[in-house]
Write a structure and sequence with these properties.
heterodimer; A: 494 residues; alpha+beta; 7-stranded antiparallel sheet; 13 helices; 28% strand; B: 159 residues; PH-domain like; 2 domains; 4-stranded antiparallel sheet; 50% helix; 25% strand
């Protein structure tokens, strides 16, 4: 592994396809907008240009593969690459947080993997991270063990009291969670897209109901308009259904074979059907846990659990809020979480905001709706009044949000529960909370209410958890718990 | 929790914010003047100019007279060995606590106007948030920066 190594030749092809994929949209736009400025004898010109471009792209893919090499030296992963400018990137192993493996459609028949190197440096888009487009599984395994060994060696230098003679053995992998096909399908069907489709169907039927009696009475012209509306409605419904179907398929493909493993101090998540992905999250990077229950899953007793982790680069921000348990019965969360993060508890009894904040919740959810509903009702007079039940529904949401809001403190853990549309429960350890705020308007001050807001680290930005309109002394007690200096320290590492 | 943070920001901030208010209103006044001219030229409805004029007056009252005072009165901070405690906000009062162990770094910054008034803004960064105390006395900001950065000891593996 100390010799410079090349990637598998297939990476030239992968580079090529990737460049094409990135350029696909602008290319299509150009082709469609341009039409063809060349005609007659010159109509081969655009073809030649496209052909030439393709050759250049393919060539650059090949050259990039030729110039890419990587090796381990002096406890560093060293990578040299660059199409025109030679670039060198040396990553010290102790900076490497994890190696993530993924296998795309090109990789699988050849038993190759793509390796992404995640580092801790949060220095923005320039963060030292690297990607090995395609190497064989054996090479990847070798690289992983080598990095793992060197990392351990470096750690042992620091902590001398640890018994240094111990051989690094292959760490045991323990499967802690897997998703059944039933859960997977249920998850895909009840994902966020479902709400859109259901409301679409509702709109469609309301239109349809309108048309039936009206069609017989109105003039022929009106009939035509109605048919037009019907056509539009049918088309929209159709498009929605197709989009829904696609989103179901994509979800199933993305989350197929979802399993979570525990390997020493790392959490390993594998998933994917066509494209297999493996992600490694060191347990000590996990900043908090969030339990989400959307409107469809909640009555069915299902929820999803997301971990908030402080990751390396800003670029892959969405990966920092990673679904740990994408679809699980709410009752089972506690047991699974116990295996992974034993110091987190799924809190039971939440303290709720007082009854006098009920109306604030309702106003909070619906004031924008009221503002919109007034002009709509006036301008589109009888039909515009439909906005009124919509506002009532928003206020109902506010009531729901009031019912779901709550907080509880259990030793070193703060749990905040709130709802905008999705019911979210944040489980947070005190030593992970970066800052806590108490917010209060003058009116709330008068009635003794206030909002608590805490921030966790998550990738480039922060994850913010709130609970609105609590009793002021409750907020104060959370703030007091937070500044309690004696226990504010991180628990001593074992 | 009920007692407010002890420290206030520099009284000179008041003058500074009023100057900002004047600049703000002046720009708005320029736009209003232009609008009034066009109203006369193209005979647009007169209430456009009147409305804009009202807006200028309102803006001046708010940003030159009312808001700087309220803002100054509300802004308080306190830096102890364990915590940084901030309070600000005119209508929404926000009280923020940042434990010293969470602080990653401290910066001070100073624009041309702030320099003229020997003021300086200090910003305190944690792994997830940035907190600013505006318009501190230059020397006070410097002293605070020194003391915070010497007190802040972030445990590496917390982030």
């Amino acid at each position: 592994m100390f010799e410079p190594r090349k990637l598998h030749p297939i990476s030239a092809l992968i580079n090529f396809v990737k460049t094409l994929k990135d350029a696909a949209l602008p290319l299509i736009v150009v082709i469609f907008i341009n039409g063809s400025p060349f005609s007659g004898d010159w109509n081969w010109v655009p073809l030649a240009i496209w052909g030439g471009l393709l050759v250049i792209v393919l060539g650059s893919g090949v050259i990039r593969w030729l110039r890419f090499s990587y090796w381990m030296e002096d406890g560093e992963l060293r990578i040299e690459y660059g199409l025109i400018f030679r670039k060198k990137r040396y990553i010290p192993v102790e900076r490497i947080q994890s190696l993530d493996f993924s296998e795309g459609i090109f990789h699988r028949p050849l038993k190759l993997v793509k390796v992404s190197v995640e580092t801790a440096g949060a220095t923005g888009t320039q963060g030292a991270e690297a990607e090995l487009t395609a190497i064989t599984r054996e090479e990847a395994k070798e690289l992983e063990t080598l990095i793992f060994q060197q990392k351990r060696a470096a750690q042992e230098e620091e902590t001398v009291e640890e018994n240094a003679g111990e051989q690094p053995v292959e760490p045991p992998r323990q499967k802690v969670f897997g998703m059944t096909m039933k859960d997977l399908v249920l998850m895909a069907v009840t994902s966020g897209g479902a709400g859109v489709v259901i409301s679409g169907v509702a709109v469609f039927f309301s239109q349809f109901m309108d048309i039936l009696p009206v069609g017989a009475i109105y003039e022929e012209l009106l009939d035509w308009i109605q048919i037009g509306v019907l056509m539009v409605a049918v088309t929209v419904l159709f498009v929605l259904l197709i989009a829904y179907g696609i989103s179901i398929l994509l979800t199933i493909m993305r989350y197929a074979y979802f399993s979570v493993y525990l390997e020493e101090e790392d959490l390993i998540i594998t998933r994917g059907w066509l494209e297999k992905k493996q992600m490694t999250i060191p347990l000590n990077r996990i900043q908090g846990v969030r339990i989400d229950e959307n409107l469809i899953r909640q009555p069915m007793g299902y929820a999803s659990v997301t971990i908030i982790s402080a990751g390396g680069s800003i670029m892959k921000n969405d990966e920092h809020q990673l679904k740990l348990l994408p679809m699980i019965r709410k009752k089972e969360i506690e047991a699974v979480l116990q295996m992974i993060l034993e110091d987190y508890q799924v809190a039971g009894d939440f303290k709720q905001p007082p009854a006098r904040s009920k109306y604030r919740y309702m106003i909070r959810q619906s004031w924008l709706g009221v503002l919109a509903a007034i002009p709509v009702s006036i301008y589109f007079y009888p039909y515009g009044l439909l906005a009124v039940p919509a506002v009532a529904a928003l206020a109902g949401f506010g009531l729901l949000a009031y019912k779901d809001a709550g907080w509880t403190i259990d030793g070193t853990q703060l749990s905040l529960r709130s709802r905008n549309i999705i019911k979210q429960t944040y489980l947070m350890k005190r030593f992970r909370i970066q800052a806590a705020s108490k917010k209060q308007t003058l009116l709330q001050k008068r009635s003794g209410l206030s909002t608590i807001q805490v921030t966790l680290t998550s990738g480039g930005g922060g994850a913010v958890a709130r609970c609105y309109y609590l009793e002021e002394k409750d907020t104060d007690s959370v703030m007091g718990w937070y500044i309690d200096a004696v226990t504010n320290q991180k628990p001593v590492e074992k | 929790m009920n007692n407010q943070p002890a420290q206030r920001i520099s009284k000179r901030a008041l003058t500074l914010w009023r100057i900002y208010g004047v600049i703000h209103s002046f720009i708005l006044l320029l736009i209003t003047t232009a609008l009034t001219v066009t109203v006369f030229l193209w005979e647009w409805p007169w209430w456009l100019a009147a409305g804009a004029g009202g807006l200028v007056v309102l803006d001046a009252v708010l940003f030159i007279w009312l808001i700087p005072g309220l803002r100054w009165k509300r802004w308080r901070y306190e830096v102890s060995e364990q915590n940084i405690d901030l309070q600000h906000g005119i209508f929404i009062i926000t009280r923020t606590l940042v434990p010293m162990v969470r602080v990653q770094h401290v910066d001070t910054e100073q624009g041309p106007l702030l320099r003229k008034f020997r003021l300086s803004t200090i910003s305190i960064s944690t792994a997830a948030t940035i907190h600013k105390i505006p318009a501190l006395d230059e020397d006070e900001a410097e002293r605070l920066r020194q003391s915070i950065s010497s007190l802040a000891r972030v445990a590496e593996d917390d982030v």
